[in-house]
Write a structure and sequence with these properties.
With 252 residues, the chain is mainly α. The protein folds into two domains: 147 residues, no CATH class; 75 residues, no CATH class. The protein contains 15 helices and two strands. Helix 4 packs across helix 10 and helix 13 packs across helix 15. The longest helix is centred in the first third of the chain and has 16 residues. The protein starts with a strand and ends in a 7-residue tail after the last helix.
Length: 252
């Protein structure tokens, strides 16, 4: 099976006419989707073969977000970074081949008629970088790509599971907003440090992730972080978090 994507004209129309079309998303009007996307020139076939991800539809997102990051990245890890950065690819998948997942993950927002979230989940309306971690499908691939540890052959998703365990949606945005976490080596180093602390009983929350990014921005002004390996980054971040928060283990 080949991935389908939307044409440039279709993307422009879907965005320009979103206020007109949004009622069909909110009501899950399958007849409208069928009629719109059967129009000539709306849908294009890529040369990218893929097997459909085995998505989890478990409403407990603390579990299913991890499962679905893994499912998406397992299915599409052959995408290049350039391909995975294309808005038309993710818009096409959200409207066509993966609309079942879109409707599942956005169910609460659709039921509440959250129009702002509807638009940001479908289109790249938050800038080219941030949107990769806001779009409801793109973020699955990108979190998988950024956290996958090919050096751990027994469990390459060990950092992914830790990252997805709590507040996946918010964490994806605020953690990857840092310029330095765009580097996979740095990202892995940060997550190794935070997971180590978490495993010791220090519950890692938003403030710890934000502080890690803030500290990288400070240190990055004085040294070239890209020359450090993940273990060096991990030691730096662990020391910083211990100093800044003086964390104490959670009582059992």
């Amino acid at each position: 099976m080949k991935i389908q994507y939307v044409s440039e004209n279709a993307l422009h129309d879907l965005l320009a006419q979103h206020d007109k079309y949004k009622e069909h998303y909110l009501s899950r009007n399958e007849d409208w989707f069928k009629a719109y996307f059967e129009q000539e020139g709306v849908v294009l076939d890529s040369n990218i073969e893929y097997v459909h991800p085995n998505f989890s539809f478990n409403p407990n997102f603390s579990a299913s977000d991890y499962d679905n990051v893994k499912a998406m990245y397992d299915a599409l890890n052959h995408l290049t970074v350039a391909q995975a950065s294309q808005e038309r690819l993710w818009v096409g998948l959200a409207h066509l081949q993966m609309r079942d997942y879109f409707n599942f993950r956005l169910k609460d927002d659709l039921d509440k008629k959250n129009e702002k979230r509807l638009k940001s989940a479908l289109f790249f309306v938050n800038g080219s970088k941030r949107s990769l971690f806001v779009h409801v499908l793109a973020r699955l691939w990108w979190v998988g790509y950024m956290t996958y540890d090919e050096n751990n052959t027994d469990d390459p998703y060990w950092l992914t599971k830790f990252f997805c365990a709590r507040e996946f949606s918010g964490r994806s945005v605020y953690f990857f907003s840092s310029n330095f976490t765009a580097n996979r080596m740095i990202t892995k180093g940060v997550l190794i440090a935070l997971k180590k602390l978490d495993d010791e009983g220090f519950e890692m929350k938003r403030a710890h992730f934000v502080e890690a990014g803030r500290y990288l921005n400070i240190v990055g002004g004085a040294m070239i972080l890209d020359i450090l390996d993940e273990n060096e980054i991990a030691r730096m971040i662990e020391a910083r978090i211990r100093k800044a928060f003086k964390p104490t283990p959670i009582s059992v």
